[in-house]
Design goal:
Residues 68-88 are annotated as: Disordered. Helices cover 88% and strands 0% of the residues. By secondary structure, the chain is mainly α.
Length: 88
């Protein structure tokens, strides 16, 4: 008898999954039309590749800024040591 309940539970879960998918499929055009009339656009989620590209671009920009700051600091250090050498 237990097997019958297990089978029934499995098929009930499948039925719920199919019903949920069916309702989403039927409601999507209506929701899309409502968003269109309201002027609300859904932003598509960036793909994994796009997200990685954005992260790499941001990392490159941070690295470039760090390099510029280091170069400016080094220039100041060199200028300071030249000024100290001339005074002696």
């Amino acid at each position: 008898m237990s097997k019958h309940f297990t089978d029934a539970r499995y098929y009930l879960g499948r039925a719920v999954d199919h019903a949920t998918a069916g309702v989403k499929e039927e409601v999507e055009p209506v929701a899309e039309r409502a968003r269109e009339l309201a002027g609300i656009e859904e932003e598509p989620e960036p793909s994994r590749l796009e997200a990685i590209k954005a992260d790499l671009i941001a990392a490159g920009e941070r690295a470039a800024e760090t390099a510029r700051e280091a170069a400016a600091s080094l220039r100041e250090t060199v200028r300071g040591s030249r000024d100290d050498g001339d005074a002696a």
